[in-house]
Amino acid sequence: MKCINKTVLIILFVATLFWSLAAQDAPIKIGVVDVEQAILATTDGKKAREEFQQKEKNARNEILPLYEKAKALQEELEGKKYVLSEEALFEKQTDMLELRNKIENKTKELQGDLKIQQGKLEAPLKAKLVRVVEKVGRDRGFTVILARDTPGIIYTREALDITDDVVTRFNSGG
Q1: Are the C-beta atoms of residues 132 and 172 closer than 8 Å to each other?
Q2: What is the pLDDT of residue 13?
Q3: Which helix or strand (DSSP H or E) is residue 30 part of?
Q4: Which domains does the chain have, with CATH numbers?
Q5: At what angle are helices 86-140 and 163-171 packed, to 10 degrees?
Q6: So what's the pLDDT on residue 1?
Q7: Which end of the chain is more exposed for a tag (fewer CB within 10 A), N or C?
Q8: Residue-level pLDDT at 76
Q9: What is the dihedral of CA 63, 124, 17, 155, to 10 degrees?
Q10: Across the chain, how many H-helices and E-strands are there?
Q11: Pairs from 37-42 (Cβ < 8 Å, separation ≥ 24)
Q12: Which residues of the chain have pLDDT under 70?
């Protein structure tokens, strides 16, 4: 329901914008930018992606020993469950549960850290991209430039897409 309301509001905003701009007798020029594609296509975006992939790899390597330990403990438990006393079996099962909890907690911690690190890497890129898009919009006389992933936008002509121009300007320093 919220998504529908948000989409309706955006459509009404865009319609009002076009109606008010049309009243000025100035030609309406619309551009579209694929923000994610633009960021990933820039030199800085590629460096940030490589850095983030390295951080993901480090996180996987940090948690891998816990998974291996859990697998070994599970195999040991399966192999010895008929020869262990009830007390020893209960102790091994408890160890297994504690290890699973530790893995789950560590995974959540690493995912949270990765999300924060991704935000720190993306924030300056997005800020610079906004400045570049604004400059392209002024220089090329656009009335409005929309993000391709804006709710309510289902289709745009390729001729409206200025992503490549934005990437070129971004890489050249804005």
Answers
A1: no
A2: 62
A3: strand 30-33
A4: 23-171 (3.30.910.20)
A5: 90
A6: 45
A7: N
A8: 86
A9: -50
A10: 5, 2
A11: 37/148, 37/163, 38/129, 38/163, 38/166, 38/167, 38/170, 39/122, 39/125, 39/126, 39/129, 41/163, 41/167, 42/125, 42/129, 42/167, 42/170, 42/171
A12: 1-26, 154, 174
Cα–Cα distance for residue pair 125/46, rounded to 1 Å: 11
- pTM of the prediction? 0.70
Give residue 121's pLDDT. Answer: 92
CA distance 174 to 163: 14
List own/partner pairs for 109-115 with CB under 8 A and 24 or more apart: 110/59, 110/62, 110/63, 113/59, 114/52, 114/55, 114/56, 114/59
Nearest Cα to Cα of residue 139 among 172, 160, 169: 169
Could you tell me the CA-to-CA distances from 8 to 32, 54, 94, 151 in Å, in that order?
Answer: 20, 41, 54, 9
Tell me what pLDDT residue 149 has.
80
Amino acid at 125: L
94-118 in b/e form (b: 16+ CB < 10 A) is eeeeebeeeeeeeeeebeeeeeeeb
CA-closest candidate to residue 92, choices 108, 105, 100, 81: 81
Q: Note the pLDDT of residue 158.
A: 76
Could you tell me if 89 and 81 are in contact, meaning their C-beta atoms sit under 8 angstroms apart? yes
